[in-house]
Amino acid sequence: MVEAASTEGEVDGGKRGKKSLSVKPISLDEIDNLKIQRETTNIDEFDRVLGGGIVPHSVVLIGGEPGVGKSTLLMEVAGILAKNGRKVLYYSGEESGVQIKVRANRLGVHSPNIHLLTMGTLEDLESGAEHLKPDYLIIDSIQTLYSEKGPAISGSISSLRYVTSRVVELAKNNDITVFIIGHINKEGQIAGPKTLEHMVDAVLYFQGELKTDLRILRAEKNRFGSVDEIGIFQMTHSGLTSISDPSLLFLQHRQVSESGISIFPALNGMRSILIEIQALVTDSPFVGNPRRIAVGFDPYRMSMLISIIEKKLKLPFYKSDVFLNITGGMNLREPAGDLSIISALVTSYKNIDVPKDFIIIGEVGLTGEVRPVTFIENRIKEAVRQGFTKFILPASQSDIKMADNISIIPVGNLYEFYGKLKSK
Ligand SMILES: Nc1ncnc2c1ncn2[C@@H]1O[C@H](COP(=O)(O)OP(=O)(O)OP(=O)(O)O)[C@@H](O)[C@H]1O
Ligand SMILES: [Mg+2]
């Protein structure tokens, strides 16, 4: 028998073409099963999105549009960490020391533990970190950091990747926890773009309508926690305030019944938040090519739900422009919201007023059947807490008994649902 020759790409202990006995894989059992000691910041919404606090020596990328409050958030975090006795190195390639100090003063952040480095190169940052030996490093922003040794064009994708990989190396070799701020472009990706995401442990996006003071922090990737959690803040003169009862914020407590509106208890992690869905369905001037616009909702899923409406309820939506909006800058990504979306669309189209104390929950299948949803108890509990008493639920989950004063209307399919809507 002839022994197979070693080929390119064959794993032979670290070095290609040579046999080496120096690399010994270790068994999973040999690794200490120590619980990760997270550092909490007491900014509840921030800790929540990270999965319950900061994981030591992790590298977290925070993206957001200009002016949304990235520097504000991280300066507040720096302030708390510094108060906890941690040494923080804050690199800013965008603002002068004075500008940063003015912001820190406004936020009430004063500490000798925060050290600034402005407008330097990556090499300056490395030498600064070596000198200071910080516990935390904040880079504001990665797009402004360039290396004397890296690719020539600073801000290019290759430069960005090079700088980020060196920062990750710096963090891992020196046990530093790093927050990297990244600007996002119009398409909502961290400029540079998705290429940075796999290099770091967590990617958070900070979002919000700049005209309102509401800000939402959401995890896009997290090696140490769920990506379902969101953190909700209000931007004030003295900084960001965590909002612990977000349902109140998204609900406009309406006095009258209206068409085209549904209230849906969405799940974010284990927390249910009531969100408002608004739909506007109007005659389209564009025959054969009506407008379909969805904000905060997947447009493909909206098209699918419209097709189900057309097929099962025989409503000619192809003649209508459809606009769908999840208010307050929220996103609805759960199929459990299908029936609520359909309700908003159909009631707008038919001008049916939905009673203001109605909650509609259910996933809708392609054949029009209303399917059960996950964590229905959490959703109902939150809605009851906010004063809602009438629930349209999937028939298979309608035996749920949560409180005495609630009434449940079971529906098995879309046709049945439409009948119940019209009889309200
Ligand atoms: N004096 C102030 N009072 C109230 N809010 C303020 C004040 N100064 C700034 N802000 C708020 O802070 C926001 C800017 O925050 P910040 O500088 O942290 O944003 P950023 O995301 O870091 O922006 P950039 O992308 O320009 O670096 C403003 O849009 C505004 O909402
Ligand atoms: Mg900034």
Helices and strands, with pairings:
Blueprint: H1 44-50, E1 59-64, H2 70-83, E2 88-92, H3 97-107, E3 114-118, H4 122-132, E4 136-140, H5 157-174, E5 177-183, E6 202-207, E7 214-222, E8 230-236, E9 239-242, H6 246-250, E10 261-268, E11 271-283, E12 292-295, H7 299-313, E13 320-326, H8 338-350, E14 358-360, E15 363-364, E16 370-371, H9 376-385, E17 390-394, E18 407-411, H10 414-422
Parallel strand pairs: 1-5, 1-6, 2-3, 2-4, 4-5, 12-13, 14-17, 17-18
Antiparallel strand pairs: 6-7, 7-8, 8-9, 10-11, 11-13, 15-16
Helix pairs in contact: 7-8
Magnesium ion binds at residues 70-71, 94, 140.
Could you tell me which ligands this complex binds, including any ions or cofactors? adenosine-5'-triphosphate, magnesium ion
Largest sheet: 9 strands, mixed
In sequence order, what are the helices and strands, one letter per element?
Answer: HEHEHEHEHEEEEEHEEEHEHEEEHEEH
Oligomer: single chain
Mean pLDDT: 88
Q: Decide which structural class fits the backbone.
A: alpha/beta
Q: Based on Cα principal axes, name the global outline.
A: elongated
> What is the rounded distance between the termini?
82 Å
The CATH homologous superfamily of the largest domain corresponds to P-loop containing nucleotide triphosphate hydrolases
Proportion of residues in extended strands: 15-25%
